[in-house]
Write a structure and sequence with these properties.
mainly alpha, elongated
Amino acid sequence: MRTREEQLEEMAATISDLASNGLCVSYELIKHWVDQAEERARAECAADTRRLDYLDSGCGGSEWIRS
């Protein structure tokens, strides 16, 4: 997973490239990009939680973790 700073740097570079080519980047488009990034982050957190819950349940062969 990329850091917030890395994502912002990429977004700034993309906006700069679009602007240098004469294209306008609207507030709505930027908000859409940010919303998508936040949705991906929430999905990754949920997947991590499911994996940890599975391991915590003892079904994942995690006995060695509980030493």
